[in-house]
Task: structure prediction
Amino acid sequence: MNRRSTDGRGPAIRPRVLLLSLAAGTALLASTMLVVPAANAAASTLGAAAAQSGRYFGAATSSFMFSNSQHTTILNREFNSIVAENEMKWDATEPQQNGFNFTGGDRLVAHARANGMSVRGHALVWHAQQPGWAQNLSGTALRNAMTNHITRVAGHFRGQIHSWDVVNEAFADGGGGGRRDSNLQRTGNDWIEVAFRTARAADPGAKLCYNDYNTDGINAKSTGIYNMVRDFKARGVPIDCVGFQSHLGTTLAGDYQANLQRFADLGVDVQITELDVAQGSNQASIYERVTRACLAVARCTGITVWGVRDSDSWRRNENPLLFDANGNKKAAYQSVLNALNSVSGPNPTTPPPTTTAPPPTGGGCTASVSLNSWNGGFVATVKVTAGNSAIRGWTVRVALPGGTAVTGTWNAQASGSGGTVNFANVSYNGQLGAGGNTEFGFQGTGTGPSGTPTCTAS
Ligand code: XIL
Result:
């Protein structure tokens, strides 16, 4: 106001002052925006837009697609979570009984780590995509094979997976709201809770989800699952989340959001896990409504689409994804991005971690063993802890008494036999920050390791 004084010089100097203060204001605004984005600043990618409310936005992919530069450019630019479309399933990870193959899954995890993404795990047990040997098993043999599979696969990826689909598609379609018949179901109705308890023991840090389709509203199937989750919560069966696959056609149930909310009210997170929507006049609007429904439910922690481009899709003749076959953004993409940007939304209770590795330098390490043994066998869990500085890799030397033999190892590479076995880090757990730790395990026959193991860092 004082500047408005009419001293005669005012008009001459005022423009300069105004210019200076405008410039200062712009600089201040720019630096503020860089450091702390406003809650509703428009983010330009799906992952960044979802992250504004603490959620993730993911896509299904396959390690063999990483060499496709168009696919991978979009994947890395837009998404902050990935899931293996097929490579962590039972047929892929255990093609022979007790013969495990983690090649594809490890490549996915490494890609996620290199690009600051979290990883969903899909799927530990399912009636489909079982290896032939498991399809031919029944009863106790199948039950034991199931728990061994979960222990080994979840153990291998321990600490790397944000949420695991522990059990996939165990409920029947149609009006009954009951279980689907399968070889797993025929081992006894408790197979699902056994699977969850086994997964919790194998990877205590992962969120454990039940995942299914045709659950996109309040219907007999989703109510059957709802009743199971309520029962699990009441009895202390370890379940943390429910996945809604959301393979959608050209309509969306009006109670889609209400259904998510009733599950959240049971005390579990909910996630949209395999979203794709048939191409049609409603595609963009259905994508938008699903996104808004998740944003409106505080415990809806993230959305995953089942592929990147229409040409990558398992429903490719329906063009159900957010990018066309040439990698162009579709109208559905814009509607999802706008929806994510329009709502800062309630923050999920648990923001997803990303799998990032600490910078490598050099330093020492220590190792400690916890042993679970029984007459004739044991499972050993070994914690490796870096010393005062970060390390690039580690080797743990374990002494074994006579008559003890190692029969399986996870999260480490075993070598040597007889009295001493060396366990070296694998690709994803060698780098530890100062004071950081990781765990690996092995099982065997006999009494188990004796004495304190020695750890050598590189
Ligand atoms: C599909 C994959 O997309 C296909 O590549 C594969 O041939 C079959 O499985 N529900 C699920 C997913 O949980 O694992 C399925 O993925 C799609 C339906």
About this structure: The pocket of XIL is lined by residues 85-86, 123, 168, 213, 245, 274, 314 (CB under 6 Å). The radius of gyration is 26 Å. Confidence is low (pLDDT under 50) at residues 1-39, 351-361.
